């Protein structure tokens, strides 16, 4: 059993809840939906197919997508059959943004991103057993359609008056930018996806972010009109921090699931730095910990917040889920070693590279002046200040105290031949990169 399979084997529905719907509500995963009672009954009944779509508008998924993937996994654990849709056609268009038109990417780029996202989606679902997941690409059914067929067979079911009332469309119509017919048509394409999956797999549920509600309901309405059938949609809340700011950003950048775009170290630190006011809600959404376990952490946050036990568990769980146990341990070791609580020389290159990528950097080679490197890295303002800091015993290279004001970087200081870590005092860090 490989690590990913073992991880999935330990994931469970929390049987302390009377229904899966009750658990989803407790975890804060339901912001809006079609008939809640009917959905609760559906989830407790015979296995059915459901889907969520992921558009390749970038080469990686991010934390917003992780919310959907974990919701899909919870439904799969209940016995239902997930369809992970990667939008080879909708990715060529892009869903409307609130303020401006998207830049259209080339077909070659979108095709590459489809493959990349498909691999990522596959990590979070099981492709074995009676309710094995299936990956689908909407380009398979949209590419063969002619424009005439699209308008005759699909477009006839949509009313322009209804389409322009969708929140995102209304906002764009009121803006100076307006909206192109291309992006205006996106909701029809997404509706077509649901109809096609209903016809092929008897798909009865679509999930997505609540900001996509207009697109989600375009599918339920299309199926009602074209097939005379009732199907469902769930809109998950857009997750925000307790202060109202948008969740999932760090220094203005998205937290990507691809380790090349957000290192396991940076990913781990993001979760470790969650505020006390937010951490319990994060445990509910992003982990498979039980209600009893999460309530215990809530008590610890209230009574002993300085221990940050909930943040440490959150960072451990989510980083392991996304990057695996080895990379997570590397991130933990790197975090400790940077601040003198472990041996930097024992870190593997990937963990060390991820850690120093988050630090100010100075270029240096063997023989470089430590004092000058302190200046170049921005840890001090002048050579005089650097020398005084060294003389006072407050400068370290790879956690070893620098004893001489004239000290130079040794070849052995360059870990893996590439990196050294400068520290001034207890917490001020920078990296040297050869």
UniProtKB/TrEMBL annotation:
Protein keywords: Aminoacyl-tRNA synthetase, ATP-binding, Cytoplasm, Ligase, Nucleotide-binding, Protein biosynthesis, RNA-binding
Main location: cytoplasm
A GO molecular-function annotation: tyrosine-tRNA ligase activity
Keyword Membrane carried by entry: no
Protein name: Tyrosine--tRNA ligase
Binding site residues for ATP: 249
Naturally occurring in which organism (per UniProt): Leucobacter aridicollis
Catalytic activity as recorded in UniProt: tRNA(Tyr) + L-tyrosine + ATP = L-tyrosyl-tRNA(Tyr) + AMP + diphosphate + H(+)
EC code(s) of this entry: 6.1.1.1
Lineage start: Bacteria, Bacillati, Actinomycetota, Actinomycetes, Micrococcales
